[in-house]
Automatic annotation (TrEMBL):
Heterotrimer of A, B and C subunits. It catalyses: L-glutamyl-tRNA(Gln) + L-glutamine + ATP + H2O = L-glutaminyl-tRNA(Gln) + L-glutamate + ADP + phosphate + H(+). It is an enzyme of class 6 (ligase). Its EC number is 6.3.5.7. SUPFAM superfamilies: Amidase signature (AS) enzymes (SSF75304). The gene is gatA. Residues 25-468 form the Amidase domain. The keyword Transit peptide does not apply. The keyword Transferase applies. This is Glutamyl-tRNA(Gln) amidotransferase subunit A. InterPro entries: Amidase, Amidase_CS, Amidase_dom, AS_sf, GatA. Allows the formation of correctly charged Gln-tRNA(Gln) through the transamidation of misacylated Glu-tRNA(Gln) in organisms which lack glutaminyl-tRNA synthetase. The reaction takes place in the presence of glutamine and ATP through an activated gamma-phospho-Glu-tRNA(Gln).
Length: 478
């Protein structure tokens, strides 16, 4: 009997080649689980009907003795903002209702070339704006560890699909934490690659200078396998880069703990919940015991990271969302003239959070305010980048909690945008700097009789994802 909840890409490959499991059986299993659990969890926006066909093709190849490709027969869940040719894509927004993708995102093309199967598309905060998946126009997704709590966001559907055994792996996108935070809340692994490491072509843009696509998986090794498939320079994304990653051990020795938010002496302050602070301390001790040197480091500018993020991000959002005018994509409202068509389409199509950010973004870019807000935020961003650059001269990796709290209650923060924004405090600086980071599950803490997962975040210098995988694998041994 296959124990489905312990499967990883590696173990599935072995089962496939030994003939103990077929891709068809695996797809059937996930579809069965989706039928059972998803009416309550709401991880999927749509389950595709052609996964079986793809599974049969994979099985045929494996039977014929062809060496299986890296992701042969591996069933994926895909966030609703990543285009799959011929499938609907909506970024969980009403404004894209009825839109069908006319091409594959580069990441999808790459997964396909390695034999991956697509089970369906997953729920998210509208246009990836949020930390709870409550901003979806299609209802909140629920956390499988406690259905009264959020799964995090914006890639909440993808994290729940993996955590709830409704897919073996998933793709999400991360602009300020949207892969790592839901991964932490749901007890799975989430990787935000170096900015530019993975092509953004075919990702519905939120804030283009911050967005990255990455994997959500059951193990660090699985995240590594997927990263190696999707990464690389792409002519369709001029910000993408071909980085030469070291293949062997990078032998990280020193880990920095940034004093500003995670001071060893002052833990428990700055909104960091005590239970998480304890787990974080435990992770530090764990690395020490494994022979790592722990150093206290300083990133003085990260104090301003959230403020800078909530200027730079909405500025880019307001520009990126201007293309949704009712003419080119998705749904359209009728009006007396063109201007009215635009206005009515956008009024009906965008939810409150999307509208809030478009307005904020237009404001910080407007004549007279540009210098005071946008230009200044860009300077702060540069300083944050410098802080990371400086500290990475002294340490190989940085360590932080992924989130200040475990999963919060559905409805708890949705009417208070500021407290929702504060949830991103540990993840946002990484996107501003462009460095890679991974959230690795590190046990659970008990709340109201439920065990809620905790995520620990490892951060590496630009294009040093290998260090994350290496240290992440050590951390997950625990
Ligand atoms: N929660 C953050 C926000 O609301 C990050 C979102 C993201 O990474 N897509 O902007």
């Amino acid at each position: 009997m296959t124990n489905y909840s312990n499967l990883t890409i590696k173990s599935v490959r072995e089962l496939f080649t030994n003939g103990e499991l077929s891709a068809r059986e695996l797809v059937a299993h996930y579809q069965e689980e989706i039928k059972k659990k998803d009416p309550e969890l709401n991880a999927y926006r749509e389950v595709f009907d052609d996964a079986f066909k793809a599974a049969e093709e994979a099985d045929k190849k494996i039977k014929e003795g062809e060496t299986p490709r890296a992701l042969e027969g591996i069933p994926f869940a895909i966030k609703d903002n990543i285009l799959i040719k011929g499938k609907m894509a909506g970024a969980s927004s009403k404004i894209l209702e009825g839109y069908t993708a006319s091409y594959d995102a580069t990441v999808i093309e790459k997964l396909r070339e390695e034999g991956a199967i697509f089970l369906g598309r997953t729920n998210m905060d509208e246009f990836a704006m949020g930390s709870s998946t409550e901003n979806s126009a299609y209802g909140a997704t629920k956390n499988p560890y406690d259905v009264s709590r959020v799964p995090g966001g914006s890639s909440g559907g993808s994290a729940v699909a993996v955590a709830g055994d409704m897919a073996l792996a998933a793709l999400g996108s991360d602009t300020g934490g949207s892969i790592r935070q839901p991964a932490a809340f749901c007890g799975v692994v989430g990787l935000k690659p170096t900015y530019g490491a993975v092509s953004r072509s075919g990702l519905i843009a939120m804030a283009s200078s911050l967005d990255q696509v990455g994997p959500i998986t059951k193990s660090v090794r699985d995240a590594e396998i997927i990263f190696d498939v999707i990464r690389g320079r792409d002519d369709l994304d001029s910000t993408s880069l071909e980085a030469k990653l070291p293949s062997g051990r990078s032998a990280s020795k020193t880990i920095g703990v940034p004093r500003e938010y995670f001071s060893l002496k002052e833990m428990g302050k700055e909104g960091l919940e005590e239970g998480i602070a304890k787990k974080f301390q435990e992770s530090i001790e764990f690395f020490k015991a494994k022979g790592f040197e722990i150093k206290e480091v300083s990133l003085p500018s990260v104090d301003y990271a959230l403020a800078a993020y909530y200027i730079v991000m909405p500025a880019e959002v307001s520009a990126n969302l201007s293309r949704f005018d009712g003419i080119r994509y998705g749904s359209r409202a009728e009006g007396k003239n063109l201007l009215e068509v635009y206005a009515k389409t956008r009024e009906k199509g965008f939810g409150p959070e999307a509208r809030r950010r478009v307005i904020l973004g237009a404001y910080v870019l407007s004549a007279g305010y540009y210098d005071a807000y946008y230009a200044r935020a860009q300077k702060v961003r540069y300083m944050i980048r410098k802080d990371f650059e400086n500290e990475f001269k002294n340490v190989d990796l940085l360590l932080t909690p992924t989130t200040p709290h475990p999963a919060f209650k559905i409805g708890e923060k949705v009417s208070d945008p500021l407290s929702m924004y504060l949830e991103d405090i540990y993840t946002v600086p990484i996107n501003l700097a462009g460095v890679p980071a991974i959230s690795v599950p590190f046990g659970t803490i008990e709340k109201e009789g439920k065990n809620l997962p905790v995520g620990i975040q490892l951060i590496a210098p630009w294009h040093e994802e290998r260090r994350l995988f290496e240290a992440g694998k050590i951390l997950e041994e625990k």
